[in-house]
Amino acid sequence: MANFLIRKKLCMIKINKYLNLIILFNILFNINISFANEAWDKARLAMPCAGCHGLKETSSIPSLCNLEEKYIYNSLLEYKEKKRENYLMQIIANGYTENEIRSLSVYFSKTFSEKVCK
Amino acid sequence: MNRRSFLSSLFYGVSSFGLSGSIISQSYAKPLAKVVILGGGWGGLSAAKTIKLLSPEVEVIVVEKENMFRSCPISNWVIGQLKSMEDITFKYDRLKNVYGIKFINEEVLEINIDKKSLITKNYNINYDKLILSPGVELDYSSIDNWNASFLNTFPAAWKAGKETELLAYKIKNMSNGGVISISIPLSPYRCPPGPYERISLIASYIKKYKPASKLIVLDANQKIVSKGKLFKKAWDQMYSDIIEYRSDSRVVEVNPKKGILSTDFDDIICDVANLIPPQKAPKLLDNAGLIKKNESWASVNPYDFKSTLAQDVFIIGDSTSQISVGKVPKSGYIANSMGKVCGLAVICEIFDKVKLSPSMINTCYSLISSEEGISVSAVYSYNEDLQKIVSVDGASGLSPESSSIIKDNAWDWAQSIWADMLS
To answer: What is the ipTM for the molecules in this complex?
Structure first.
């Protein structure tokens, strides 16, 4: 009898574990369907920037690590409006709308700085 | 590193560009899908890494015949005696060990679209999604008497490797007063400003070390294909007594014994010859039915780089047709951007999500001497009306002048983009 109860208990634990996994999976998956869309949309714009902007602090092309959102936003907008000097960044910044510049600023100051920069 | 620590190291950001979508797949036990990538160059690696960052449990296999990555960009610096091959050669180790990307270092013999597999000498590799990033095939068919054994005399050095070293060696060992000739194929070819940067760097080297030498340029095009104004200005100012530029000059025959390149008009006798032949998408793609009749490059849908001629096949990089993609250069940076767009599109397809509109950047730096560089840049997006990738209005252009800062930028760009793909 005791043996049977132990087996039943083990079985319930297994079932619970299984159900928990399904619930966990659904939570993770559903959260991330919406979360990922937004993150991926920002990454879609930001990923090509990594061609030039690396993580090295000694590079002649500045790293985008740990910069304030407002600083990135203002800088890109000033490049776009030709109020800030740098022929190349004036060309690149002109390729993005103000909304896209906001997305890039959020991305680099938050997700990128938190997850990628050390 | 066990499985759990491997996944968490990825999630907590090993140079991962913060792509937190990776959390999605941590709850899966077996691979979600198998993505096979042909080509471990700029496009292939960018796609591979993007996929692994978005979803580590998608299985990614790169099939690449070389076991090391040799960078085409910066290889002109080796020919110009500024860098060595070691400086532009890298291992694939981090992609294998940190990201779990598998490599098979064998040549692909056949792409079987019906059976969804790649065939190499020892493997038959099945795929759910296939990404082709094979680069260009050098096409010597327009040279009447061409034979592969002529390569030692007429290296192309258009794929970084032994021929790059050979050409660098020949230039270094040429006597003062020697003649070098470079032939440039009709556009489109890989890296539009590449030949002109090479000419500039060789001229810069011989001006300093072998000033009695000459450099004869045989350009099949009517004029300099890329950054023309800036290259011409530099050549006029610095190398007017060294470079002799001939437009509309297509090499049609060679004589390896005498070192002669023949055009329709002239025979050029030279001590060192660099024959860059016309280019097209590799025959492998044509054999698989991925090239339209009478075309040389692969047609794709530029929104996601999916082949217009086969299911579950994506094609990126230099082998794509500008007719289908739009007017984007065949550059390393563009291949890197295409790899990211395609990687994201493949993941969206696997997760049955709506694909996002492509956004790409190109910046090509070129040196005009051992001290100074120039650049061209553009931002690209997808135009719904034209159904093509186009440069955004007002977001393309050249550097106004050459400068030493741009040379520093060029080297630092290379460091960043190599790290972006390889570490």
So the answer is: 0.91
| In a shared domain, residues B183 and B260 | yes
In three-state form (DSSP H/G/I as H, E/B as E, the rest C), the secondary structure along B90-145 is ECCHHHHHCCCCEEECCCCCEEECCCCEEECCCCEEECCEEEECCCCEECCCCCCC
Same domain, B266 and B327: no
Question: By the CB < 8 Å criterion, does B385 face chain A?
Answer: no
Boundary residue ending a domain (B243, B261, B277): B277
Two tokens, residue B31 = 């691979």
The minimum CA-CA distance between B226 and chain A, rounded to whole Å, is 17
Which residue does chain A place closest to B376, by CA atoms?
A88
With an 8 Å Cβ cutoff, are B54 and A40 in contact?
A: yes
Domain that holds residue B240: 146-277
Number of A/B CB contacts below 8 angstroms equals 148
The answer to whether A36 contacts B21, with C-beta atoms less than 8 Å apart, is yes
- Domain limit, last residue, from B355, B381, B398: B355
Instruction: Name the residue range of residue A52's domain.
Output: 2-115
Structural domains of chain B, count:
2
Per-residue pLDDT of chain B in tens (423 residues, 90 and over written 9): 333 333 333 333 334 555 544 434 444 456 789 999 999 999 999 999 999 999 999 999 999 999 999 999 999 999 999 999 999 999 999 999 999 999 999 999 999 999 999 999 999 999 999 999 999 999 999 999 999 999 999 999 999 999 999 999 999 999 999 999 999 999 999 999 999 999 999 999 999 999 999 999 999 999 999 999 999 999 999 999 999 999 999 999 999 999 999 999 999 999 999 999 999 999 999 999 999 999 999 999 999 999 999 999 999 999 999 999 999 999 999 999 999 999 999 999 999 999 999 999 999 999 999 999 999 999 999 999 999 999 999 999 999 999 999 999 999 999 999 999 999
- Tell me, yes or no, whether B127 and B15 share the same domain: yes
Does residue B298 share a domain with residue B273? Answer: no
Q: How far apart are CA B109 and CA B74, in angstroms?
A: 30
